[in-house]
Amino acid sequence: MSEKAVRNIVNLSGGKDSTALAIYLRDRVPDLEYVFCDTEKELSETYEYLDRLEAYLGTKVVRLKHDGRGFDHYLAVYGGYLPSARTRWCTKHLKIEVFERFVGREHVKSYVGIRADEARVGYISTKPNIKPVFPFKEDGITRQDVFRILDSSGLGVPDYYRWRSRSGCYFCFFQQNIEWVGLLENHPDLFAEASRYEKQATEGGKRYTWNGRESLEELARPERLASIKAEHARRIAYETRSAGQKTLMEVLDDALECEGERACAICDL
Ligand code: SF4
Is the separation of the CB atoms in 114 and 135 below 8 Å? Predict the structure, then answer.
C-alpha cells in the first residue's frame, strides 16, 4: 500500500495530553482524523471539552460507539465481575476493539499523546496495520509544554481537572480516593450509579468493589470523607512546599497523580 493510503488518526481520550496532541499536530500532519471511543460512561465535562476542541479545530471529532453491546452487556458476559486494573475488559471491548473495528484493514498511523517525561508504553496495537506514533516523545514535549499548548489555544484543561486528573469512565477503578470524593460532590447521581453497580455485582455473594477493598458506601461515610480530604490537603501542602518552578496546575496534577498503575493511553491521556 502506498504512503498516500495511510490514514493519520489521533485517538482522543478527552484528557489534556491527547487534546494537546491534536492541537500540536493540526498544522503538522495533513488529513488528520480525530476519533473518540465513547463508552457512554464518560463525564459530561469530557463531552463538553470535546465539543470545544471541535470548535477550535474546525473539524469533527468522530465519536465511535460500541456495536450495541455496551458496558452492561459485557458486565453480564463477565458474570457481574466489575473490571479492574488486572482484568481490564472494559478497555478491551469498549475502547480498543471499537477503534480496531473502525480502522478495519486499512493502514493507519495512530498518534499517541504519551509525553517525553513519561515512562508509559501506552496502547500498542497488536494489529500489524496500525502503527503507533509518539510525537511528544520524539519532540521532547513535557507536561509543562502540554499546559502551554492548551493555554495558548484558549482551551485550557477539561473542567473535571478541578477534582480529577484523568479522563475516562466516571466509575474508573484507576481513580484515587479523593477523585471518588470529587465524583460524589460534583456528580452525586453518577456516584450513586457507581455504587449501584457494586451492590448489583455483590448480590451473587462475592463482594466486588471499584476501589480496592472499600465499597463506595463505606467511602461516603462522613468520617471517611473527612479523612480522605485531610490526606489530600496534606499532599497538596507537600507538593506546594516542594514545588520549585511548578505552576499551581502542576502542583494539583502531582497531588492527584495516581501512584499505582495508570489506565492505558486510549483511556487516559
Ligand atoms: S476509563 Fe477506566 S473504566 Fe473506562 S474503559 Fe478505561 S480503564 Fe475501563
Answer: no
